[in-house]
Structure formats: structure tokens, C-alpha cells
Specification:
By secondary structure, the protein is α+β, with helices and mostly antiparallel strands. The protein contains six helices and three strands, in the order ααβααββαα. About 60% of the residues lie in helices and about 10% in strands. Helix 1 crosses helix 5.
Length: about 140
């Protein structure tokens, strides 16, 4: 399990860097924003969804902002907080990176398992997540229900 947990992210990182010029974490941040209806998330929620610290996220958001892929703005519900907003260029970057990323994940994980094994893997991960994240803080709202 440790070997998979270290090799898979490193391999996905290398593929995204090579094909899309972004790290796996940068892609994850952009893809989380792309999945929300208004392509906007409060930074604290984005940190939860990406399982990162606010300081790590802040550094990545600065890099993505300097590339025009997202912008920061004050949260209208709480002016002390900030939100990340995916720009049209950021959405285009996600859409461009997604096919290669999905192909790589399919090749490395999905195609390696038969349907029963995929179901077992999903069930096993859900059980582990019940212990790691009992409040489901890392579960996106659009996956609930």
C-alpha cells in the first residue's frame, strides 16, 4: 500500500508536468474549482478538499494566479476570508490536461483491475476514509447524496 501511495502520485505528477506543464497538486486545485457550479471556493474549503495546509495552498494559488489560471478575491460572505476563482484560462488548462490524466489513471489503475476488484477497492477505500475522515471534510459536496 505504501508503495502505491508513493508511486502513483509521483507518476501522475510526472505525466501532468510532461503533458500539461502543471503538477498533480496544481491540477487537483484547478479541477476542484472546475467542478463547482460557479468555479469558486473559499480557500479554507479548497485546502480541505485537497488535503493541504492553507500555507501550501496559498503558495500554489499564487503560482496559478501569476499564470492567469485563477484569481483570488475577498469572500463576499466574510471579507476576512478569500476565495479562489477559476478563470477561463484555468478552465481551458483543466480541459486540456484532463484527457491525458484520465488516460494515465485508466492505464495504471482501472485497466489493471476487473470490475469486481474495482468495486472491492472502492469499498475498501470508503472504509478507510470513514476512519481517516469521519466528518467527510475532504468529500466534495457535489459527490454527496
Amino acid at each position: 500500500m505504501v508503495r502505491v501511495l508513493t508511486r502513483l502520485p509521483a507518476t501522475l505528477d510526472a505525466q501532468l508536468e510532461r503533458d500539461a506543464g502543471m503538477s498533480f497538486f496544481e491540477y487537483h486545485v484547478l479541477s476542484m474549482l472546475s467542478e463547482t457550479p460557479d468555479r469558486t471556493l473559499r480557500l479554507s474549503r479548497l485546502a480541505q478538499l485537497t488535503s493541504s495546509s492553507l500555507s501550501r495552498l496559498s503558495n500554489v494559488v499564487k503560482r496559478l494566479e501569476s499564470r492567469g489560471l485563477l484569481r483570488r478575491e475577498p469572500d463576499p460572505d466574510d471579507r476576512r476570508a478569500s476565495r479562489a476563482v477559476l478563470t477561463p484560462e484555468g478552465m481551458a488548462a483543466v480541459e486540456q490536461a484532463a484527457p491525458g490524466h484520465v488516460t494515465t489513471v485508466r492505464e495504471l489503475v482501472v485497466d489493471a483491475l476487473d470490475p469486481a476488484q474495482l468495486n472491492q477497492l472502492r469499498d475498501a477505500y470508503e472504509r478507510v476514509l470513514e476512519r481517516l475522515d469521519p466528518a467527510s471534510a475532504t468529500r466534495p459536496e457535489w459527490l454527496e447524496g
